[in-house]
Amino acid sequence: MKVQGEHLFKGTPQQVWDLFRDTEVMSAALPGTKKMELIGENIYEAVMNVRVGPVAGEFSGQLVISNENYPHSYTMTVEGRGKPGFMKGVGDVILKDQGGNQTSMEYVGEVQIGGKLAAVGQRLIDTVAKSIINQAFEILDNALTERVSADAEGREADYRKSSERDYAATVAKDLIKNVLKRTGSEDS
Fold it and tell me: Strand locations in the chain, DSSP E?
């Protein structure tokens, strides 16, 4: 499955880069994350609860950062396994200064999914993946705004992690919207 897109952050490339390296923020941005920690140079270990339709379970895996060009680009390799199956992926992240304290992020990658997880169907997986990405960007936007404000005010940043319930509700809304769009029932 190909994963690609763009997002505009309100911050400098350095601020966005640093945000992506903060395990507390990234853990909050990825729903279902039980643990995320740096275990070696550019190697992170994570444990996540994942649900895609009727398939759910815990995944353990690693995320490795390579090909760093601070603060412009890097490659991310992800590998995870659990009872519901496995996931392997590799992708590139490119940060571009847009001026005016804004940074665009482009990402492109390939993900392989196997086991019970792959059996739920590509459309369902695509919709859930897009929903997770959109929710992660919303959380990262809020975290970046909070970090910039906290730095300016000389205080600690206070990050709020969204609940798994809120995450599940948003995924459900996105799934319904996708089904309605396919059947032509959605109001424009």
Answer: 2-9, 33-40, 43-52, 55-69, 73-82, 85-99, 102-114
pTM score, two decimals? 0.80
Nearest C-alpha neighbor of 179 from the set 124, 133, 125, 130:
124
- Asked if the structure places residue 110 within a domain, the reply is yes
Domain that holds residue 16: 2-183
Amino acid letter, residue 45: E
**The domain that contains 82 carries what CATH number?**
3.30.530.20
Q: How far apart are the first and last CA of the chain?
A: 29
How many domains in the chain? 1
- Digit-coded pLDDT (tens) for 142-163: 999 988 888 888 888 876 655 5
DSSP H or E segment with residue 167: helix 164-183
Which residues, at least 6 apart from 14, have a Cβ–Cβ distance to it below 8 Å? 71
Burial of 174 (0-12, 13-18, 19+ CB in 10 A): middle
Is residue 188, in this structure, part of any structural domain at all?
A: no
